[in-house]
Design brief:
Elements lengths: L5 E5 L3 H13 L3 E5 L2 H9 L5 E5 L7 H11 L5 E5 L4 H9 L4 E4 L4 H13 L24 H13 L6 E4 L6 H10 L8 E5 L8 H6 L16 H4 L4 E5 L6 H13 L1 E2 L8 E2 L3 E6 L3 H6 L5 H7 L2 E4 L10 H14 L6 E2 L1 H9 L5 H15 L4 E2 L1 H8 L19 H14 L10 H20 L4 H8 L3 H11 L11
Parallel strand pairs: 1-2, 1-3, 3-4, 4-5, 6-11, 6-12, 7-8, 8-11, 13-14
Antiparallel strand pairs: 9-10
Length: 485
């Protein structure tokens, strides 16, 4: 049941004011609209309104400058902020200044109305003051696509919590950048950020690296050494490539997450730990669980807030912004300022980027360093990209365009059996293969239908309740694309 209220709308765009006025009035709300911040502030200061919807950029004042005054005068008043700027910093500032919710423009009207109903239904309670000092000035994440907007909004919600986050995504998508953003803009920003890559450390040294060791704990341990947990105390510990952690270290990590304490290698005294855990992987941990290579109970401990980073090919509209960003970085490092012709940019947007953002960054730096001209032509871009036209699988094999699903599975199974060097894989292969095919099938269908379960069920030929069950069992998490109002 929707709750009716008095809603104040401020936006310089007359069309948006009209749309919101009509939609909110149909729901039974009393609506007042204005095109300037001064009028909005006068209404708020007079005690009017149960909820505010405002654009960030107003003709007379920026909403972010006005929000602290609103929260001071009426801390219980929910404020929904909209913006066409659509950057990571916009989402962060909305969170820091106390906005109830942030929506990028163009927005989904149905989603906005749902947020309005939720805000009016919740008990009124003022948000705690957010610290705004010691904020980094650099832009950690770049992109204005719908996929990145969903990432920004989720990150903004996570900044003032210590919830464990699991970041998944292909290599080169920026998982460590996201982890650093969670730390540098969060409540632990004054503590250390410590990163450890599981794939880069010998298996027999991982426990010592994580938990430290005592003198004489093993051959070569001539002194006591602090581990990453101790180094990250009061801050954030980033466990990169968590899928490469050996089973024995997984068991110890699980114990730390459950008990909040650990012992050094060779030590006996428990040490309390105060760290936020952010983990990342480019592997499908569910597949590793089925193969007996990753603990299921540890997965659920780490996967409190799952965050999937899209591959660059899934957000190709962000390529121009990323190119400008990397060229600007190059200038700060002594490289010459460059730009790419419109034809070259279009070629880059159509390229699949198997190496993701990291590959794009390397290309931009190479262009800035090797080519003397101010504008890089489409011919140069085509020449640079021609060697990477076919997507590459982890084993380095090219995937032919005409490969069928059955042939792809056959290729996978051949490589899978080869991994065991003549031995047989663990029992249960039939169900594991079905699960591995089922997950991407459901995910792709939900993505194609923008999260609409009715359409996805029809596409798959499944009953809607069956699809819901599979989404829950498989842990499918889809970020809905925004639809213009």
């Amino acid at each position: 049941m929707s709750v009716r209220g008095n809603i104040l709308v401020a936006d310089d765009d007359a069309a948006i004011r009209t749309v919101l006025n009509q939609a909110l009035s149909r729901m039974g709300h009393e609506v007042r609209v204005t095109s300037n911040a001064a009028t909005l502030w006068r209404w708020v200061a007079a005690g009017e309104g149960d909820l505010v919807i405002t654009d960030v950029v107003m003709p007379d004042e920026n909403a972010f400058d006005m929000l602290p005054r609103i929260k001071k005068a009426r801390p219980e008043l929910p404020v929904i902020v909209m913006s066409a700027q659509n950057t990571f910093m916009t989402a962060i500032r909305a969170s820091e200044t106390g906005a109830y919710e942030y929506l990028p423009k163009p927005f989904d009207l149905t989603e906005l109305l749902s947020i309005v109903n939720r805000a009016l239904s919740e008990p009124r309670r003022p948000k705690s003051d957010q610290r705004q000092d010691d904020q980094p000035d650099a832009m950690p994440l770049v992109g204005r696509s719908a996929a990145m907007q969903d990432i920004y909004r989720m990150l903004a919600r996570m900044m003032q919590t210590d919830l464990t986050v699991m970041i998944s995504g292909e290599s080169g998508t920026g998982k460590e950048l996201v982890a650093r953003a969670l730390h540098e803009y969060g409540r632990r920003r004054n503590g250390p950020f410590v990163a450890i890559n599981m794939a880069a450390i010998p298996r027999d040294l991982i426990e010592s690296e994580l938990f430290g060791h005592e003198k004489g704990a093993f051959t070569g341990a001539q002194n006591r050494s602090t581990g990453r947990f101790e180094q990250a105390d009061g801050g954030t510990l980033f466990l990169d490539e968590i899928g490469d952690m050996p089973m024995e270290a997984q068991t110890r990590l699980l114990r730390v997450l459950q008990q909040g304490e650990y012992t050094t290698v060779g030590g006996r005294t428990p040490i309390k730990t105060d760290v936020r855990i952010v983990a990342a992987t480019n592997k499908d941990l569910r597949t590793l669980i089925n193969q007996g290579l990753f603990r299921e109970d540890l997965f659920y401990r780490l996967n409190v807030v799952p965050l999937r980073l899209p591959a660059l090919r899934e957000r190709s509209e962000d390529v121009p912004d990323l190119v400008r960003h990397f060229f600007k970085q190059g200038v700060s490092e002594g490289l010459q300022a460059k730009r790419i012709s419109s034809g070259g940019v279009e070629l880059m947007k159509r390229y699949p980027w198997p190496g993701n953002v990291r590959e794009l960054e390397n290309l931009v730096r190479r262009l800035a360093a090797l080519y003397p001209q101010d504008e890089i032509s489409a011919d140069i871009i085509e020449s640079e990209l021609k060697t990477g036209e076919q997507p590459v699988v982890p084993g380095g094999n090219l995937i032919p365009d005409d490969l069928s699903v059955g042939q792809a599975v056959e290729h996978f199974l051949q490589r899978y059996f080869a991994m065991f060097a003549g031995d047989l894989p663990p029992p249960g292969l039939y169900q594991r293969i079905l699960a591995e095919v089922e997950y991407p099938l459901v995910l792709a269908s939900m993505t194609a239908t923008r999260g609409n379960q009715i359409k996805a069920a029809e596409l798959l030929g499944l009953n809607r309740n069956t699809l819901r069950k599979k989404i829950r069992e498989l842990g499918v998490n889809v970020y809905k694309s925004s639809r213009p109002a």
